[in-house]
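Students often ask why inverse folding is considered easier than folding. One informal answer: many sequences map to the same fold, so there is more than one right answer. In these notes we will look at a single instance of the problem. The structure comes first.
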């Protein structure tokens, strides 16, 4: 029987609670995810947890996220109720109870994330393996590798490169994060041959879960971790 794939709470439990908020991460922890995924930007010198480049979809604010002052951002409401958290607030909540996949979104955030990770390792008893740093911007992953080579890297793809998983191996990554739209057995086989772990985003239905498991993925991101936490591969 194949191994149970890891369940990664996408933006916490984005289908159940306002995404990327403390409430969402609390819910994912209660469900018992293996990791949570969150998106980070550098805004006004702080690493904040938020997905979009602009404020309109998720908050009562307007305009570009990175143009805001921190105090103004923290007064906004996400989905009319929650606050935009700092990365450190989420790490304090998680407190090593599951892994944390930090997805670097905006420019220039890699340095600040490394500083925070180093602090949690040296002062709070975290291990580098509690973190997984990912990005579609592979130059920021290179920067992470330069600053702290012990941090595991996840290479995000939306598409299928001509040389398959070679870019992730070149970066010395731990994992390759593949879009469900481009799920492809060759890509997964190639990643595994290069000793890379394969995670797929974003799996919300049982039909997609079955496809992902059949292709041998090692884990998947989901907005609804409650739907999958007790599933075993091969069971309906
Ligand atoms: O990290 C997986 C997934 O979150 C990547 O896409 O846009 O949801 O951050 P996005
Ligand atoms: Mg993300």
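Output (designed amino acids):
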């Amino acid at each position: 029987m194949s191994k149970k794939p890891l369940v990664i709470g996408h933006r916490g439990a984005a289908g159940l609670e306002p995404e990327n908020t403390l409430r969402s991460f609390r819910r994912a922890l209660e469900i018992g995810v293996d990791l949570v995924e969150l998106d980070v930007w550098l805004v006004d010198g702080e690493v904040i947890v938020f997905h979009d480049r602009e404020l309109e979809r998720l908050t009562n604010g307007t305009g570009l996220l990175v143009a805001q002052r921190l105090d103004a951002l923290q007064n906004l409401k996400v989905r009319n109720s929650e606050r935009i958290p700092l990365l450190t607030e989420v790490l304090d909540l998680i407190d090593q109870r599951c892994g944390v996949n930090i997805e670097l979104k905006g420019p220039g955030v890699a340095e600040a994330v490394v500083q925070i990770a180093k602090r949690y390792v040296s002062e709070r008893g975290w291990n580098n393996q509690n973190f997984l740093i990912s990005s579609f911007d592979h130059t920021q992953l290179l920067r992470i590798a330069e600053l702290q080579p012990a941090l595991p890297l996840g290479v995000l793809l939306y598409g299928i490169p001509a040389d398959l998983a070679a870019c992730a191996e070149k970066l010395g990554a731990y994992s390759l994060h593949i879009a469900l739209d481009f799920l492809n057995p060759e890509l997964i086989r190639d990643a595994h041959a290069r000793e890379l772990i394969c995670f797929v985003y974003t799996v919300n239905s049982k039909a997609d879960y079955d496809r992902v498991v059949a292709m041998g993925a090692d884990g998947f991101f989901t907005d609804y971790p409650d739907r999958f936490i007790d599933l075993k591969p091969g069971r309906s």
